[in-house]
Amino acid sequence: MASSTDILQKTTKALSEVYQEEEEMNLRTGSILPSNDNLRELMLLIKGVVFPGFFDRSRITERTRLYHTGVAIENIYSILKDQIAKGLVFCCDRSENTVAAEAKKLAIRFIEELPEIKRLMLTDVAAVAHNDPAVTNYGEVVFSYPVITVMLHYRTAHALLELGVPIIPRIITELAHSETGIDIHPAAKIGEYFSIDHGTGVVIGATSIIGNHVMLYQGVTLGAKNFKYDEKGLPMNVPRHPILEDNVTVYSNTSILGRVTIGHDTIIGGNIWLTHDVPPHSRLLQSKAMYDPGFLDGAGI
Description:
Blueprint: H1 4-16, H2 20-23, H3 36-50, H4 65-92, H5 100-131, H6 138-144, H7 146-162, H8 168-180, E1 183-184, E2 189-190, E3 195-197, E4 203-204, E5 209-210, E6 215-217, E7 221-223, E8 243-244, E9 249-250, E10 255-257, E11 261-262, E12 267-268, E13 273-274, E14 283-284
Parallel strand pairs: 1-4, 2-5, 3-6, 4-7, 5-8, 6-9, 7-10, 8-11, 9-12, 10-13, 12-14
Helix pairs in contact: 3-4, 3-8, 4-5, 5-7, 7-8
């Protein structure tokens, strides 16, 4: 029987080998990778800049707001340029000493976008407060509603993706996905005054386009109906998710699949499977409930 030492050494050797599957993960030996922990810290800083006073570790007054914002912006820049550089090394097969200048430039360009991100987030807060009668004030929405967390992550990630930053946007949205149960791809396009009530289980695919004043309920999927494949048998990244025009409401557990357009000022009821275009000013409701007498009183299939 092998000793404990032999088993430990054998296991260590096996796990230290580089597998072919690992090579396909773009892992470069010796490179420092992007950090989930650092990106969480980044998002806390951005949250504090967008909603000053709500999530800060120290008290903020009108007199100290400029100072605290300045410190946060400096920290955002420091973390972001470092993480972007690591993302460029990870995804773009470049050395660490060749990406520093580009990472700084991208980080500065993102910081220029922060006022617009804040403006959009304030419209989202207003939309949630307007659509939910349980809301007592805007501050409650900022503090406690998961849609605000996920939308800040999404709007940050989308801005970074639009600048051409690799990998970091996806990590940021997946951090929010893990926390809230809401899955929004950073490539999706979402307009102003967006709200999700409850939120759990909502999925918004990469090529989805969502207009202004759109509201979704829990369990809604904006997904792909099928995929087109290239000559290597890999799925092609072509438009495959729905377009929701302005003033659309989609109720819980409805799946809208494929590159279909839901016209403006439309209401889609709950528990609907939808794979076709819907004209503006429509109302789609589930058919009347049906039952099979063969399933009554414990009778199975």
